[in-house]
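Example record used in the benchmark description.
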Amino acid sequence: MQQFLKLNLKKEFSWVNWKPEDIKKLPHNLVAKKRVLLEAVKKIPKEKRTFENTIGALERADEPISDAFCRLEVLLNAHTDKDVRDACGAAITQLSDLTTDMVYDEALYKAVIEYAGKKEKLTKESDKKLLKETLDAYRRLGFGLPTKKRSLVQKLFKDLQKTTQEFDRNINEWRGSILVSKEELSGTPLSYQESLEVRDGKYIVTTDYPSMNPFLTFSKSEEKRKELWTIAQQKGGKENLVVLKKVLAIRKQIASLLGYPSWAHYQLEQYLAKNPKKARETILQVLRGTKKSKEQELRELKMYKKKDSKDSLQPWDIAYYDNRIRQNKYNVDENELREHFPLTHVIPTMFSIFENLLGVSFEKAKGMPSWHEDVFRYEMKDVKSKEVLGYLFLDLYPRAGKYGHGAAFQTSEPRKDVATGLQKPPAVTLMCNFAKPSKSTLSLLSRYDVETLFHEFGHALHFLLSKAEYISQGAFKTKMDFVEAPSQLLEHWCWDEKILQKLTRHYETGKPLPKNKIKALVASQYHLEGYSYTRQMVQALLSLDIHEKSITDTRKHFQTLTKKYLSFTFPASSLFPAGFGHLGSYAAGYYVYIYSKIYCDDFASLFKAKGMENKSLGARYRKEILEQGSLRDEDVSAKAFLGRKVSTKALIREISKN
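Model output (structure tokens):
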């Protein structure tokens, strides 16, 4: 059985207290230490090269810097002090610049080629994979190109890092809001109204999701819904369209220099889809599968809007009339649902479900520091061995300067500790933006919030249970069009009747949602799925198109796609691509969510057949998917879990149910 290193939590997580001056010293200190390690690798005579002293040594030399990147990313996206966030952003840029220069060291490349040329027989699959990926990485960085071209590629990668960070930062720092009267809040929950700040007798509704989504869902004021939605379309600002154009130009130039037709071809080469053509086929397959239900849903929404107004249905009407239909058709009231999803009940219930399923336990971590008083901290233990497998941070409430969506951030990566031979417990951070509890009201979650929490927790479990020996083979290092599968899978638990009976508790009475309401909620699951999938595929096409084709106006192209597939004409003022953060991190690969769902829905079909809380199946899922991380090909892992090759049948059933 694998044994784990015992950590001094105060020391291990002391970085949460870094000051700007500490952060500024990091890049040069870390790079200086790495240089010493790399010099040792370069000096090894050709005949004495082994996997361990060359390929393994190169991998381990990256560990301190990899940890630093993780920690800086967390503080950049979560710290309350802008000076700390700015210092983190600058340090990330500097580290990227310095390490890019080191990667292009010809002597290191020669060392790798010398070892590979020995054709040493490797017995461990993890070692074989690491060698192959090391050679692939050098090729994709331009090694093999003439010196002048390679130098240009090196410069462009550094420019790309800086420009992408600027794009992301403009989105994170952007804030929008409107002022509304008490009357214009009509229809919204009282708990929501009490959570809003008041200025000169008016309530402030912001474009942060916990503030915006309930307003768009419940407010009877179409005028104010339109105002808020229109402002939200300005996210990132006009300047971010210019930044995005620079990002796309740099990516295109890099791909061309490396011999690829486009950045999409370069990027997707390492994904399960392999190429843009396969990704596009998947997107179009989903668009065909959802066309009928989307058109039916839009007709129904228009019919409801017609009862209130002669005006045509608009994007800011969708959530409002969706809620009206759910109330009338399924007797599902989003406001009532929130009252049955208090955060204080949802989190321990979620823990309990997956503790029993996977054979782990979550306990509050004593003496574990964090960057903010609102952050919850846990240690995850194996039930049988009692060993600590990893650590979990939950940062769940919005605040100025914090990451604005829901995401899982790798915080300390899984790998074997060379000095002791023991596995080092990883740490992961979940950042969400749920309504913060007030003096009079608990934090009440929408069903979408609950889905988000389960989704991100799926990422956490994948990360924490990975048994990777090398940091480059951890859970988040799986192919990008698979990495969402374990997180999407957990969303299926949110729509199971037995699970919902456990998960729902009224925040005042403590009673679960009545069984007839649960049945209605499950029946409503697929309402507006056609529209939602179509909208996501429009965004996936946007990300793919602008990285494969010559598109000069990303804003106009998005509006063209929206008109074609959703029948909406967005206002000329809409700047959607400027605020679409996935164009930074996912680039051409936003399709990965639907591609991962092929695996997710196939995995879910097994749980639905054998039981959502089937411990035997849970143990198999832990062993064959979660613990594997990126140790082996994802299709091999999927077959080991399913007992067969992965199939698209479950996905097609899901997207065409309505």
